[in-house]
Specification:
Oligomer: single chain
Strand content: 15-25%
CATH architecture of the largest domain: 3-Layer(aba) Sandwich
Number of domains: 2
Structural class: alpha/beta
Mean pLDDT: 87
CATH topology of the largest domain: Rossmann fold
Number of strands: 12
Helix content: 40-55%
Shape: globular
CATH class of the largest domain: Alpha Beta
Distance between the termini: 19 Å
Low-confidence stretches: none
Length: 383
């Protein structure tokens, strides 16, 4: 949402950005004279154990509904833009606030909340069916809709008879590939130990259930075995950025692998350093396993903005809207394929890997602001 805020503010609008506490907004957002940031308490359900997830979610709905209505009405906005998920109670609250304000509501669909809930509870759970019904009723009352892929546009039409405009995820900022000295300085500042010649593989995560970290564990072990068998190849360093509820358990699983020629480092980096870290890597990996099958991972757009070729999990046809196999990245369906791709790309960095880098440069010319002005700006009233 902060990218939307910057785009709207740069077009002359005054923006109030409401969001949950967590990672701090970019400095550019915090310092923009037309943007005011208001933070909401972190939802209880994000910290609740699995057994208490439903009670915590119900408590969240009660607590957040009144708070959100008060905050939104206090903005006196003429237009409200809400990103979903989360859908409950956000969509209904935004619709109510828009009616009270006489404001126009725009919904930006990044996924389906019911599908995300199904990852925890299963698709046949009554709460999942109720969430889908809520989303259908609450989401259809907006004045305009955005979504992240052509496949999602089609699905919105099929499920809810919603006509949406596709606003594709694109990199908000670009980072040039650093020199060897610049890379060493960056790694030193981030306390990342990367010996000369080490190939660096980067991925980012919110550490939630829609990413396949079991697959990555298997791939790490396979990479290590392959490099032990081929001692002439350089070692690998996997950098996994981000924070979330599954991170600590995964770190314990990695420690049990006793890897010899593969190192793994989990870390949190500031938003300013994130694109620089991606640009310093050799390969990017996306483990996103879509809950709905029609959303696209923003991390791939970030990697392309840093000139980084991607090995992406092939979770459905929609991934081809972003990754063009053999041109700007590769697709995999299992750990064996991912490990083979990483080892072979790192073995010949001036061959196929460099060819993929050129493909990323060819296909990644449009940035977030340029895309927003073409695809989203026409939906908003003139400033």
């Amino acid at each position: 949402m902060q990218y939307h805020a910057l785009a709207l503010a740069s077009s002359g609008r005054d923006v109030v950005l409401l969001g949950y506490r967590g990672a701090p907004p970019d400095r550019e957002v915090l310092e923009h004279p037309r943007i005011r940031v208001e933070l909401l308490p972190t939802p209880w359900r994000q910290r609740a154990p699995r057994a208490l997830y439903l009670p915590a979610s119900l408590a969240d709905v009660v607590a957040q509904t009144g708070l959100l209505v008060r905050r939104l009405v206090a903005t006196r906005a003429g237009e409200l833009l809400v990103q979903t998920p989360p859908a409950i109670p956000t969509l209904a609250v935004a619709r109510l606030a828009a009616r009270l304000l006489g404001a126009r509501l725009v919904v930006d669909w990044h996924n389906f909340g019911a599908d995300m809930l199904a990852l925890r509870l299963g698709r046949t759970h009554p709460a999942v069916r109720a969430a889908a019904a809520f989303e259908r009723v609450a989401g259809t009352g907006a004045g305009a809709h955005l979504c992240v892929s052509e496949a999602m546009r089609v699905e919105l039409r099929r499920r809810y008879a919603i006509d949406a405009t596709v606003l594709r995820d694109r990199p908000a900022r670009r980072a040039p590939r650093p020199s060897a000295d610049e890379r060493a300085a960056l790694f030193s500042r981030l306390a990342v130990a990367a010996h000369p010649g080490t190939r660096v593989v980067a991925t980012s995560s919110s550490w939630t259930l829609d990413e396949d970290f079991a697959l990555l564990l298997d791939a790490l072990a396979r990479c290590d075995a392959a490099l032990r068998a081929r001692p002439e190849l350089p070692p690998l360093l996997f950098l996994v950025t981000g924070a979330g509820p599954l991170r600590e358990a995964w770190e314990r699983e990695v420690a049990r692998l006793a890897l010899a020629r593969v190192s793994v480092r989990t870390l949190w980096v500031a938003s300013e350093d994130y694109p620089r870290l991606l640009a310093a890597a050799d390969i990017g990996v996306s483990l996103h396993r879509s809950a709905s099958g029609v959303d696209l991972p923003m991390k791939i757009a970030d990697m392309f903005g840093a000139g980084l070729p991607v090995c992406a999990l092939a979770y459905g046809p929609v991934i081809h809207e972003l990754v063009r196999p053999g041109e700007n990245g590769l697709l995999f369906e299992d750990a064996a394929t991912l490990a083979g791709q990483i080892v072979e790309l790192c073995a010949e960095p001036d061959g196929r890997l460099e060819e993929l880098r050129r493909g990323v440069a060819r296909h990644g010319a449009i940035g977030w602001i340029e895309g927003w002005r073409t695809e989203a700006a026409p939906l908003f009233a003139p400033s």
